[in-house]
Write a structure and sequence with these properties.
Layout (H helix, E strand, L loop, with lengths): L2 H14 L2 H8 L3 H15 L4 E3 L4 E3 L1 H25 L7 E7 L1 H18 L3 E7 L13 E5 L8 E8 L1 E5 L1 H7 L12 E5 L7 E6 L2 E6 L1 E6 L2 H9 L5 E4 L4 H6 L3 E3 L8 E7 L7 H17 L2
Parallel strand pairs: 3-4, 3-5, 8-11
Antiparallel strand pairs: 1-2, 5-14, 6-14, 7-12, 7-13, 9-10
Helix pairs in contact: 1-2, 1-3, 1-4, 2-3, 5-9
Length: 297
Amino acid sequence: MDRIEAMAVFVAAVDEGSLSAAGRRLGMPLATVSRKLSDLEAHLGARLLTRSTRRLVLTEAGRDYLAASRDILERIDEAEKNATGAYTNAKGELTVAAPLVFGRLHIAPLVTQFVEQQPQVDVRLVLSDRNANLVEDHIDVALRIGALPDSSLVATRLGEITRVVCASPDYLRRFGEPSSPEDLRRHRCATFEGLTSPSTWSFPTPQGTVRVPVHSRLTVNTADAAIAASVAGIGLTRVLSYQVAEACRSGSLVRVLRQHEPPGVPVSFVVGARGRLPMKTRAFLDLAIPRLRDLLL
């Protein structure tokens, strides 16, 4: 029996919550996972897990052995990374995951710059609105939008995003700036129907949510089209703050009704490894974190 492999199977089963999920993570058939755990328990002469049809429960011996297994596996991983120079040189393949639109607008340009700076690092960029499993999908760094559940992942807070109302300076000169949500009744709008209703926009207040009728002169199904229309002076638009960050920075759009924006949603980088990060990961985070924090102010 390969005890190191058996430990890895045991840890994966606990982390994933089932033998089948551990098998998917490790690329092993369910029967193999079950056999390796049984062999490990037979070798130790102790039951580590109580199996049921719905979940796995650690025994007292299992809790102690889990902590020791994690420590041993982390030490082996660190020794291998030291031996290959992963902590001293940025090299190898780095996999970065991000939500689709945010990734295309803000992570892809950073990755391009990173590749130019780090000739020994190849990057795989995964853009998807599904929150990938970092271990199972072999992801080094993932950008997450939203509150993070308690997990073994290590998170770095970057800032927040929220829904914002914007218009071009020319539109505001012609039609004036709304000072309250109720003022929207007399304005024209370019609406991204994937985020808001083309006929009603909602705003939080201490008394509850206020819904204001709006006149959508143009309704589109992408944020990019709504933003372009607003830049062209069609009317006010409502999108996510990061989607108009560059347009607001350049002066093409102006944020209005800022005191009526809903609470922000956190944006974070998460990594699966605790302790010292490989140089390729640290180098990417050193580049990306200050840029994104500036973007998400």
